[in-house]
Write a structure and sequence with these properties.
Blueprint lengths: L1 E7 L12 H8 L3 E7 L12 E2 L9 E2 L1 H11 L8 E10 L2 H9 L2 E5 L8 H6 L3 E4 L8 H13 L32 E2 L2 E2 L9 H19 L1 H7 L3 H5 L3 E7 L4 E4 L1 H7 L3 H4 L13 H13 L8 E8 L5 E12 L5 E9 L13
Parallel strand pairs: 1-2, 1-6, 5-6, 5-7
Antiparallel strand pairs: 3-4, 8-9, 10-11, 10-14, 12-13, 13-14
Helix pairs in contact: 3-5, 6-7
The structure holds S-adenosyl-L-homocysteine (SAH).
Length: 354
C-alpha cells in the first residue's frame, strides 16, 4: 500500500486536510496510509532539544542533524526503499510528472523543516532529496508535505472517481487545462461557449485543446516552449531559439539566442521582433508574418534559409536557420519560432528535432 511517513515537530497537524474529502475518504478506505512521526521524540537530552543556533551566526535556529538522523533511522525499516524527501524551498520544484512517479512507487518518507531549516549534514548523510512546492517561503514543511501527499494520493488507483479525470487536466500533457463550465446556461449575462453545448464531440475536443494552448501560451511561456518541442534546442547554446506570439512579440529567448545575438532574455522578451529584424527588411518581414498569421487552414511553408538578423552590436548577420509557424488545433497561427544555428564551421549543424 502507498505509505506516506511524515517526520515533523507538529504531528498533530496530520492528517488535517488530508483527512477530508477525496484523500480523507481514501485514507478511511485503506487505499493509502499516513504516519506522522514526532521528531521531538527522538531528542535525547532532558529538554528534548531539536534545534540550535546557526554555526557562523545569524538569526533563527537550525534543526539538529543528530536528532533528525535518529528519527529517520528509527522510522525507516530495513529494506525500505521509498524516496526520502526533505521539503525545502531550495529543492527541485515539484511537478506533476514527479508526483505521478511518486504515486507509482511505494510512497515516501517526508521530512518537514521548521525554523531556518535543517543541518546540511543530515541531508548528505541520509541522501535526502530536497523538494520545493514553489518559489516562496513557508514557515514549515508540513503544508508543503500535505500538498505533495495530496497530489500523489489523488492519482492512486481507486481514489479518483473516474479513471480518466486525471488524464486531461492541467500539466498532464504539458498544457494548462481549458476553462470549465456547468449549468446554468446563463450566469449574470454570460453564456457557456456555444461549442460546449453543441453536442459535437470533435468540435468540443478541438475547442478545449485550442483554449488549453491559448492559456498556456499566455500564462506560462516556459511550459509553452517545452510543449512546442523547444526544450532540448532551447537549452543548447549552439542554437538560438526564439518564439514570438501571433502579434510578433518575443515570448521565448533561449540562452543560445543571447549568445548569438547579444541581447539577454530580460531585454528581449516582451519586445517586438523589430529588435532583431534589420530595418531595411522590416516591411517584408511584417508583410510575410501577418500573411502567415492570417492564413488559417493553410500551411505557410516553413522557411529554411539564411535569415538576416540584427545583433545587439548593430551587425547584421545571416545565420542558417528555420522559421516555423506554430498553429493550434484550430489551425490558427499562434506564433512563430525561429531557430538559428551558430555558424561554427561544422558541416552539418544539428537542427533540433521538432
Ligand atoms: N531559511 C530557509 C527557509 C526555511 S523555511 C531558506 O531560506 O531556504 C522553514 C521550512 O519550511 C523549510 O525547512 C522547509 O521544510 C519548509 N518550506 C518553506 N518553504 C518551502 C517551499 N517553498 N517548499 C517546500 N518546503 C518549504
Amino acid at each position: 500500500m502507498w505509505r506516506a511517513t511524515v517526520l515533523t515537530l507538529f504531528p498533530d497537524m496530520f492528517p488535517g486536510p488530508l483527512g477530508q474529502s477525496l484523500a480523507g475518504k481514501a485514507l478511511a478506505a485503506g487505499l493509502w496510509q499516513l504516519d506522522a512521526v514526532d521528531i521531538r521524540a527522538h531528542a535525547t537530552d532532558k529538554h528534548r532539544t531539536v534545534d540550535d543556533t546557526p554555526a557562523g551566526g545569524g538569526p533563527g535556529m537550525v534543526m539538529k542533524a543528530d536528532v533528525l538522523a535518529r528519527a529517520i533511522d528509527a522510522t525507516l525499516g530495513a529494506g525500505d526503499a521509498r524516496p526520502r524527501l526533505l521539503m525545502s524551498p531550495r529543492g527541485i520544484p515539484l511537478t506533476q510528472a514527479r508526483v505521478a512517479a511518486l504515486a507509482r512507487g511505494g510512497g515516501a518518507l517526508i521530512l518537514c523543516g521548521r525554523f531556518e531549516g535543517v543541518d546540511e549534514r543530515v541531508v548528505e548523510a541520509r541522501a535526502l532529496e530536497e523538494v520545493s512546492v514553489g518559489d516562496y517561503v513557508l514557515s514549515g514543511g508540513e503544508i508543503a508535505a500535505m500538498a505533495l501527499i495530496d497530489a500523489c494520493v489523488r492519482l492512486l488507483p481507486g481514489v479518483m472517481g473516474e479513471e480518466a479525470s486525471g488524464a486531461e487536466e492541467s500539466f498532464a500533457e504539458g498544457l494548462l487545462e481549458y476553462p470549465q463550465y456547468t449549468r446554468p446556461q446563463a450566469f449574470e449575462g454570460r453564456a457557456i461557449p456555444e461549442v460546449l453545448v453543441s453536442g459535437d464531440h470533435g468540435k468540443v475536443a478541438a475547442w478545449r485543446r485550442a483554449e488549453a494552448e491559448r492559456l498556456t501560451r499566455e500564462r506560462r511561456p516556459d511550459l509553452w516552449a517545452a510543449y512546442a518541442g523547444l526544450s532540448q534546442a532551447a537549452l543548447a547554446d549552439t542554437h538560438a531559439v526564439i518564439l514570438a506570439d501571433a502579434d510578433g512579440i518575443i515570448r521565448v529567448w533561449s540562452p543560445g539566442a543571447e549568445k548569438l545575438l547579444g541581447y539577454g532574455a530580460a531585454t528581449a522578451i516582451g519586445q517586438p521582433l523589430d529588435l532583431i529584424v534589420p530595418p531595411d527588411y522590416r516591411e517584408r518581414h511584417w508583410a510575410g508574418f501577418r500573411a502567415a498569421v492570417a492564413n488559417r487552414n493553410s500551411k505557410y511553408p516553413d522557411a529554411a534559409a539564411n535569415i538576416p538578423v540584427r545583433c545587439r552590436d548593430g551587425r547584421v548577420l545571416r545565420f542558417p536557420g528555420r522559421l516555423i509557424f506554430l498553429r493550434d488545433a484550430l489551425e490558427r497561427a499562434v506564433g512563430a519560432m525561429a531557430i538559428f544555428v551558430a555558424d561554427d564551421g561544422s558541416a552539418d549543424p544539428p537542427l533540433p528535432n521538432l
